[in-house]
Design goal:
mainly alpha, 113 residues, 0% strand, globular
């Protein structure tokens, strides 16, 4: 019986270690989105003038869309979930949040309303 418990412990530890990279990717994604939102909030006071200096094209279009309240910039964003997040924020329409495929990002989007 003790051998059986140890093998379960080993299996449990292996499963937990296998999940860690997914959690790390999620944390990185959440951090990137947080940085993107902070940058956007800071740059909106310039009505989009500073957005053109952003090197990352997705971040640039997100910034322009929210600074100018123009959802058309969102269609230039390459990642589908980020595009829907942008549209939700720029157009102030939470219905776009429901189009986001990843649940954590969907919840972050809905949390803005």
């Amino acid at each position: 019986m003790r051998t059986y418990v140890r093998s379960n412990d080993t299996l449990f530890k292996q499963q937990q270690q296998a999940k860690k990279p997914n959690r790390m990717k999620l944390l990185i994604k959440v951090f990137n989105l947080a940085v993107l939102f902070v940058a956007t909030a800071t740059l909106t006071h310039a009505a989009g003038d500073n957005c053109y200096q952003i090197q990352n094209s997705d971040a640039k279009y997100f910034c322009l869309a929210t600074a100018k309240n123009d959802g058309n910039y969102c269609y230039q964003i390459s990642k589908q979930d980020d595009k829907y997040m942008c549209l939700a924020v720029a157009k102030r329409d939470k219905n776009y949040c429901y189009q986001i495929s990843k649940q954590d990002e969907k919840n972050m989007c809905l949390g803005k309303f």
